[in-house]
Amino acid sequence: MLNREPAHPALQPIQTLYNGYHFRSRLEARWAVFLDCLDLGWRYELEGYVVGGEPYLPDFYLPTLDVFLEIKPTAPRFDSREDRVARALAVASDKPVYLLYGPLVAAAGFGSDDDFAAATAYFPDGWDDDPYFWCECALCGWIGLEFEGRSARLACGCQVGDRAHNWASRRLLSAYAAAREMRFEHRR
């Protein structure tokens, strides 16, 4: 098990039970609710890795998309531990790693990263990019993470226009709302 330092020393993560899993934080549990609402199968802390000489336990693996998700309350700093290890895992595993950060709300536009749930994507070739948003294909309903929520780039291959954005579909907005509104039992 890895020890994770809280983003702010006074704010401790609240371990949360959801769907039979003990999540290290309420934010991770809310993302599990979001993924369940979208019928995206997930595995929580499936397997630990040693990458770049450091132990790493990704929060989620999504078999359907064949990607890892790491959940953080704030955007990673360039060359921070989170940034370095996510990049190293993408290269070592040959799978994309998405570091999701910010409040669990739909993309509100392309303003400050604090306005919406965004992700930094790390790719097997060592390249990274952001912002990535959840989006949905308007034709077939495929869900994925794409640059600026451009659903035309989704793996389903539907032709929905060159730069189609669908990061605020009814289905996605409903999943965000369900995750935010979920009430978890509080235990000490």
Quick description:
By secondary structure, the chain is α+β, with helices and mostly antiparallel strands. It contains three helices and eleven strands.
Write structural notes for this entry.
With 188 residues, the protein is α+β, with helices and mostly antiparallel strands. The chain is built from 3 helices and 11 strands; from the N terminus they run ββαβββββαββββα. Helix 1 (26-37) packs antiparallel against helix 3. It is globular, with a radius of gyration of 16 Å.
Considering the chains and any ligands shown, give keywords for the structure.
7-stranded mixed β-sheet; alpha+beta; 11 strands; two-stranded antiparallel sheet; 188 residues; disordered N terminus
Structural class by sheet pairing and helices: alpha+beta
Give the count of helical stretches.
3
Q: How much strand?
A: 25-35%
Distance between the termini: 20 Å
Question: Would you spell out the secondary-structure blueprint of this structure?
Answer:
Blueprint: E1 16-18, E2 21-23, H1 26-37, E3 43-44, E4 49-51, E5 54-56, E6 60-62, E7 67-72, H2 81-93, E8 97-101, E9 118-122, E10 128-136, E11 143-147, H3 170-181
Parallel strand pairs: 7-8
Antiparallel strand pairs: 1-2, 3-6, 4-5, 6-7, 8-9, 9-10, 10-11
Helix pairs in contact: 1-3
